[in-house]
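Example record used in the benchmark description.
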Amino acid sequence: MKRLFLLFAATLAGLAAPAQADRIKDIGSWQGLRANQLTGYGIVVGLSGTGDDSLEYATQAMKGVASRFGLQIPAGVNPATKNAAAVLITADLPAFAKPGQTLDITVSALGKAKSLRGGTLIMAPLVGADGQIYAMAQGNLAVGGLGVSAADGSNVVINVPTAGRIPGGATVERSVDAGFATAPTINFNLGEADLTTVQRVASAINRKLGAGRAQAIDADTVAITAPPGAESRTMLMSQLEDLDVTPADAPARVVVNARTGTVVINGAVRIAPAAVSHGKLTVKVDEKPQVSQPAPFSNGTTQVVPNSAISVEEKHSPMFELNGGASLADIVKAVNVIGASPADLVAILEALKQAGAMKADLIIL
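Model output (structure tokens):
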């Protein structure tokens, strides 16, 4: 079945397909227009005895929540926190997010809480990498996991009950200035650096705006001269991101997942003239000990007599030849003829790479 799958994949990849144009916005992104990570620390209450159970930092968080409402817990008094849990909160702040908009947040237990199911997050600030508060989070958790424990110590856990989400659980309090309205140029970054593709993007933009407006400054970035002002630049970017560009052909690449035995070879791989012979040696040791019983009334003892059988099997596979310029389909077809498994295919590809017969990037995961 695996050989049939490889042969089928090779047949599809080996078909000559015309180059397809992609929109600019599908092959990269505008510099500065990205999401920013937010994190926070808070307390979840309302749990049914599955909280942190007097964990020190959960206790401190409970005292902090109580102090907001003027309730002072006496020194030395340790409030029970079985119904509360200390949590970490994470969220992504999209580009151009404005105050008043909402964000989805993820809440994860920090301590010994067994489950957050049924809990409510008390209002907590979310800060960015600069330490400033950008959102406030609060709400009821939606937990997809479930955990149940019995008195005898047995328990059943489904999915992950110590993490949940709150859709729209955070409100943006401060926006992030992307800086693209005042920068000297607006920059477009490719998703994967390629010298040919970046030149084609610059050429497509110059055909749209006029010669000299876009310049490829490296293998990843195109700098575009644009008038200042957020409104004019937003309109310009919306026009440019729908331009069609034909990306350069991907480099020859072989990707091998050694754990699963998956091998993916793209259609750009070519093989120089080479001859390949692949064999397999199997050594089998079979232990069948025999029991020797003494004669009746001989006062002897039962003895175990070793009995080992060793066999060696060597599978001889015929040598096959790969002609110069062999394609993906030719490679896999030849390997399938000798009955090689995915693991054998990996060994053959590595040997071809070492012999200099395969000009491709060999990536082993």
